[in-house]
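Dear colleagues,

As part of the handover before I leave the project, I'm documenting each prediction I ran so the next person doesn't have to rerun anything. This entry is a single chain, and its sequence is reproduced below.
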Amino acid sequence: MVWVRSEYAGELAVLSAWLSAFIPWNVMLSSVAGGSVLFVRFVFVQVRYTYGVPFAEGVAVSDPLSAVSFQAGNSIAVAYQAWAVGAGVFGVVFLLSIAYYLAEARVEALPVDPVRLIGALLGLSGAVLAAATYLLTTRGFPGVPLPIGVVFLLVFAGVLLTIDRTD
């Protein structure tokens, strides 16, 4: 079964990277101090909505590095450190996808197949963010995480790594 024709592999790799940037890798609803906290975590940004929590009402937005520094010294800090690593790996994927889009012939001339490289890096990013999800669940706020973007990262990686690159 052919998922993608070889001649469209590059376009799929770029599209997979760009879509992954806009799909939250983790969504979690937690009950804290008589209220609720909704975390929506994208690769490069976290949006936190709080309702009925007396010490943190409203919306807060943070990036992985500021979230790591905010959580320093807490047991959950390692989860945010894993998120920062996953975001760093994904940053490489995103930059590579932009280069691939803008200079396809040059990127195709690299000694490594860019489709496979993007697939491998998406898989690595997905694995690290899966670990971050596990750490958030075991060391963070109580709640049920929905690792939506993690699933997409791993599926995109699997598709890109299994494309038959015959040309």
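The longest strand covers residues 26-32. Residues 29 and 38 are 4 Å apart (CA to CA).

All the best with the project,
I.
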